[in-house]
Design brief:
single chain, 5-stranded antiparallel beta sheet, 4-stranded antiparallel beta sheet, 32% helix, 27% strand
C-alpha cells in the first residue's frame, strides 16, 4: 500500500502495486506471493477491479452496495458487489458508452447513453429496450417527479423522453448552438445545462420555461487567468438548494449562489485542461474538482488547497463513496484507482478493516525520502557555501544532515563548481571509449607450441559464443582449458608441421587463412614485446571480406589442390637436381675388401650372408665396414628406383585422363 502526504493529509493508494493475471491458478498466485514482497504487501480491496483497456465512467448505487463502471475495449459494463468484494456480472455492449445513470437503488434499472445516438435500458436480467435520439447526445439527467429523461448534445434542443408513457415529449428550445452537460437540483428539481458558449441556462420543468441565464465564460476570466479561447462548460453539479459549481474547458471552477449572477469564488487548476468532474464533501465543506491530470480538494469558502492527488495515468471520472473517505477514479489505464483519505471520513462498512490498518501504520511511521529533495550533510553545505541556511525553512533537519530542495541544490552546485558540466562530459567520453575498447580483440597470452592452432580455437570460440547467445544455448567447454589436450600446447613433439606433404594436400585452403593468422600473431608478439595496453587491429581487409574469401566454392578448392600438387612436384625436381649435383661432386674411389678363408662369395643379397656379416665379431672391423658400405649403396639405389616408378605412374595417369576427356568431348559433340 502506497502512502503519500500533502499538507499533512495522508492519502493511501489501495490499488498500487502489480496485479496478478486472471488465468493464473490459486497455487501459482500463492507461490508468487511467497517469493515477491511487493505482491505480498499489496491490498486487493475488490477483486478484478479493472477494465481490459480504459475505464470511462464510474458510479455507486444509492444503497452503497454496488459499484458500476463502463469502459473499453470491447465496450462493456461491470458491476461489483461490495459485500462480496468481487465482480457480480459483466455485460458487453454494441457501442461505447458516453455516460450512464442508475435509476433504482440497486443495479436493477440502468440507462446508457451511447455514441451512436442510442439510448439503452437495462433491467436486472440484462438488456431490456433500445431507442434512438435525433442528435448525438453528450449528457442526460433524470427528473424523478415526472419520470422524464432530459438529453443534451450536438443540438440547440433538449430532448425529453417520458419513461412512464414510453414516448418522446416536446423538446425544450434553447439559445445555445450545442450543450455539453446538464444536471437537476435534488431539492427543487431545477434543470440546468451548460452550453458550448460558456453559459448556463436554468429551466423550470413544470412550466418548461427558462428562468435564468449565467455567463460563466465572462466571470471565469480574471486578472490572474490566462486562456487561449472562449471557455465552454465541461462540468456542472448542484449542492443543496442554493449552491452550484461549474467547471470550464480552460481549467477554472466557479462556485455560484443561485440568488446571484456573480460567482462566490473562482478556482483555477493552472493546467489549462477541461474540468472532468466536481464533487461536494459536506463534512469538511470541501469541493473535489478533477481534470485529466490532477484531483484538487479545496475549501469552498476560502479556496485554500486542502490536498491533491496526482495519479500516474489520465483521469476520466471521479466518484466519492457516500459518507466516507474513499475516492475512486476511472483512468486511461486498465486498473481503476481506489484512494482512502482518513481525514475526509471513515472507511465504508464493507471495508472497515482499513481504519485499523491505517492506525497501525500511523503508530509505526516509516521514514520517507522524497524525490524532490536532496539529502546533504553539514560538510556538503560548507562546500556549497550554504552553511548560513542552517536553521532556516529552506533546510529540514533529518538524522545527521538536512533535506533541501533539489532545485536549490542544483543552482548552488552550479555556482560553486561552474566546470561540473565539463567534468561530467569528460567522464561520459571516457565511459564511451571504455565501451569501445571492450569490443576490441583482447590481448591474450598464447602458448609456446601451436600458436596458430590456439589462435584459431580462440576465434572459433568467440563465434560459437555469439551463436549460443542468440540461440540461448549452453557454452561448450574450451579445448585450451581442457587438461586432456594440455600437452598439445606444451610439448614441442606435437608441433604441427605445415610444410609437410600430407598437411598441404589435406588443407589446401589453410594457406590464405594461415597468412592472416600469422599477421595477427606478429602484431600480438610486437605488442607483448612493447608492453602496450591497447591493441590495434591489423591492417588489411574487413571481416566481411575475409569471410567471403574463406568461403570459396568447390572449383576454387580443386584449383588450390592442383596448385599444391604442382608445387610439390617442382620441389621434388629441385631436390633431385641438388642430389645429382652432390653425387657428381663426390668422387667415388675404388675400395678393396678381403674375404675370410674358407668363405665363398655369392651375393650381398643372400640373407644368410647378411646375417653372418651382422653377427661378425668386433675383432673383424673389415667385415663390418663392408656391410655398412653395401647397405648404404643399396638404399640409395632403391630410393632412385621408387622415384622413377612414381614419375612414370603419374605421367601415365595424366595421359589416360586427357584421353578420356577428349573422348567424352567427341561423344557429346
Amino acid at each position: 500500500m502506497q502512502v503519500s502526504s500533502l499538507n499533512e493529509v495522508k492519502i493511501y493508494s489501495l490499488s498500487a502495486g502489480r496485479s496478478l493475471p486472471e488465468w493464473l491458478s490459486d497455487r501459482k498466485k500463492r507461490a508468487l506471493q511467497k517469493k515477491d514482497v511487493d505482491i505480498r504487501r499489496r491490498i486487493e480491496l475488490i477483486q478484478d477491479f479493472e477494465m481490459p483497456t480504459v475505464s470511462t465512467k464510474i458510479k455507486v448505487s444509492r444503497d452503497g452496495q454496488y459499484i458500476m463502471a463502463v469502459g473499453t475495449y470491447k465496450p462493456r459494463v461491470r458491476c461489483y458487489d461490495t459485500y462480496q468484494l468481487s465482480q457480480k456480472f459483466e455485460r458487453c455492449l454494441d457501442s461505447e458508452v458516453v455516460t450512464f445513470e442508475i435509476l433504482s437503488d440497486d443495479y436493477s434499472k440502468i440507462v446508457f447513453l451511447q455514441c451512436g445516438r442510442f439510448v439503452e435500458f437495462h433491467s436486472q436480467h440484462g438488456h431490456y429496450y433500445r431507442t434512438r435520439i435525433p442528435k448525438f447526445g453528450r449528457d442526460f439527467s433524470y427528473h424523478y417527479p415526472s419520470c422524464d429523461l432530459y438529453f443534451v448534445g450536438a443540438s440547440s434542443e433538449v430532448y425529453r423522453l417520458n419513461l412512464e408513457q414510453g414516448r418522446f415529449l416536446n423538446s425544450l428550445q434553447t439559445e445555445a448552438s450545442e450543450s455539453n452537460v446538464c444536471d437537476i437540483n435534488p431539492v427543487h428539481f431545477l434543470f440546468a445545462m451548460g452550453t458550448a458558449e460558456g453559459k448556463v441556462e436554468c429551466w423550470d420543468p413544470r412550466t418548461r420555461n427558462r428562468v435564468g441565464l449565467l455567463d460563466c465564460a465572462l466571470s471565469s476570466v480574471t486578472a490572474d487567468t490566462e486562456i487561449d479561447g472562449l471557455p465552454s462548460i465541461s462540468a456542472l453539479t448542484f449542492d443543496g438548494a442554493l449552491n452550484m459549481a461549474v467547471g470550464t474547458s480552460t481549467g477554472q471552477v466557479l462556485l455560484y449562489d443561485l440568488r446571484s449572477s456573480n460567482p462566490l469564488i473562482v478556482k483555477d487548476h493552472h493546467y489549462g485542461l477541461p474540468i472532468k468532474s466536481i464533487q461536494f464533501q459536506r463534512q469538511l465543506d470541501l469541493i473535489i474538482s478533477a481534470d485529466s491530470r490532477i484531483i484538487k480538494m479545496w475549501n469552498k469558502d476560502t479556496g485554500k488547497i486542502f490536498t491533491s492527488v496526482e495519479p500516474e495515468h489520465g483521469i476520466n471520472d471521479v466518484c466519492l463513496y457516500p459518507n466516507s473517505g474513499m475516492l475512486m477514479t476511472a483512468n486511461e489505464a486498465p486498473k481503476m484507482n481506489i484512494y482512502y483519505i482518513p481525514v475526509l471520513g471513515p472507511a465504508p462498512k464493507w471495508c472497515s478493516f482499513l481504519d485499523n490498518l491505517t492506525e497501525e501504520l500511523e503508530e509505526n511511521p516509516e521514514s520517507t525520502v522524497y524525490d524532490d529533495y536532496k539529502f546533504v550533510t553539514r560538510k556538503d553545505l560548507e562546500n556549497l557555501g550554504l552553511a548560513h541556511l542552517i536553521g532556516s525553512t529552506l533546510l529540514r533537519a533529518y538524522m545527521h544532515g538536512f533535506f533541501m530542495d533539489i532545485r536549490l541544490y542544483h543552482k548552488a552546485k552550479m555556482m560553486a563548481n561552474p566546470f561540473a558540466y565539463e567534468e561530467y562530459r569528460r567522464e561520459k567520453i571516457r565511459q564511451k571509449i571504455e565501451e569501445t575498447r571492450a569490443q576490441r580483440v583482447q590481448l591474450k597470452k598464447l602458448p609456446k607450441v601451436n600458436k596458430e592452432l590456439a589462435l584459431k580455437l580462440i576465434e572459433e570460440e568467440g563465434e560459437e559464443q555469439q551463436i549460443t547467445r542468440k540461440r540461448k544455448q549452453k557454452n561448450l567447454p574450451s579445448l585450451l582449458k581442457d587438461d586432456r589436450f594440455k600437452v598439445m600446447f606444451e610439448n614441442p613433439d606435437f608441433q604441427v608441421d605445415e610444410q609437410s606433404e600430407e598437411f598441404r594436400l589435406l588443407n589446401p585452403l589453410v594457406s590464405k587463412i594461415s597468412e592472416k593468422r600469422k599477421r595477427k600473431l606478429k602484431i600480438l608478439e610486437e605488442l607483448e614485446a612493447k608492453g602496450e595496453e591497447e591493441e590495434e587491429e591489423p591492417e588489411g581487409k574487413a571481416s566481411d571480406a575475409e569471410s567471403s574469401e574463406s568461403s570459396d566454392d568447390e572449383k576454387g578448392w580443386v584449383e588450390e589442390v592442383r596448385k599444391q600438387r604442382k608445387l610439390l612436384r617442382q620441389e621434388e625436381k629441385l631436390k633431385r637436381r641438388e642430389r645429382s649435383k652432390e653425387d657428381q661432386q663426390t668422387l667415388l674411389k675404388p675400395q678393396f675388401f678381403e674375404i675370410k678363408e674358407g668363405e665363398e662369395f655369392r651375393s650381398f643379397k643372400d640373407s644368410a650372408k647378411k646375417q653372418k656379416l651382422m653377427n661378425a665379431n668386433l675383432q673383424e672391423p673389415e667385415s663390418i665396414f663392408v656391410l655398412i658400405f653395401q647397405s648404404e649403396q643399396q638404399r640409395k639405389q632403391q630410393e632412385a628406383e621408387k622415384l622413377h616408378r612414381q614419375e612414370r605412374k603419374t605421367l601415365r595417369r595424366s595421359a589416360s585422363h586427357l584421353k578420356s576427356k577428349r573422348g567424352r568431348g567427341r561423344l557429346f559433340c
